[in-house]
Design goal:
Undecaprenyl pyrophosphate synthetase; binds magnesium ion; single chain; binds 3-methylbut-3-enyl trihydrogen diphosphate; six-stranded parallel beta sheet; two-stranded antiparallel sheet; alpha/beta; globular
Amino acid sequence: MSASPVTNAEAAGGNGMPRHVAIIMDGNGRWAKRRFLPRVAGHRAGAEAVRVTVKAAADMGLRALTLYAFSSENWRRSAEEVTDLMGLLRHYLRKEVAELHRNGIRLRTIGDISALEGDLIGLVRDGVELTKNNRRLDFVLALNYGAQDEMLRAVRGIATEVQAGKLDPQSIDQAMIEARLDTCDLPPLDLLIRTSGERRLSNFLLWQAAYAELLFVDTLWPDFDGKALSAAIADFGTRERRFGGR
Ligand code: IPE
Ligand code: IPE
Ligand code: MG
């Protein structure tokens, strides 16, 4: 870390590129509503935006892109919408995993996928396995993800070790918590984007966002693309990060 603040464009070792970008893909429903279409049409268009954005992220040289696809609270939606979202995820995985692999992209997930339907868990696992040696971009799908649930699972794991006498509570530190988060082997989060004009985190990456740059854009997710990602990265390049220093 440098002594005086620098913008991300000038950051040492960097080309101004964030290593890890995460996006709260919001606004599918409103995109559909504006077109007098059912919500599922918005989600379908959103899946296409995922496809082009992931490709763009790999072409730009990002190391990791995390997309919030389904939150641990999204089960509160109607059964019909949950089924539509799961169906689209199934369709996306069946159709796109081979293409991800061709493009040198490694698929990963965060969140508790054990709550998904069995065949979906299988598709996710197969995709992760097929692409595990790829190095161009880590494409991380947040599925049944909630930051509070992630932290709860980490705390439970630590408490279990303490109870077993394997861990002294005094030795628990930040690194130990980070090592138990779903994101443990991803680069630190540099830029967190939310589309659709909403300005909240909705239980996404709360720990990881501690020093991330936040960007809220009005674009509805289905309208997001490589150009929008470039614009977000250009904005990031102008930010001055201090990490609590001067
Ligand atoms: C984001 O779009 C997609 C998911 C949450 C899965 P929304 O469905 O939340 O769209 P809006 O917020 O209703 O427009
Ligand atoms: C956050 O969007 C979750 C995803 C994008 C997957 P929501 O649309 O579910 O968030 P709220 O309900 O507006 O906070
Ligand atoms: Mg929404």
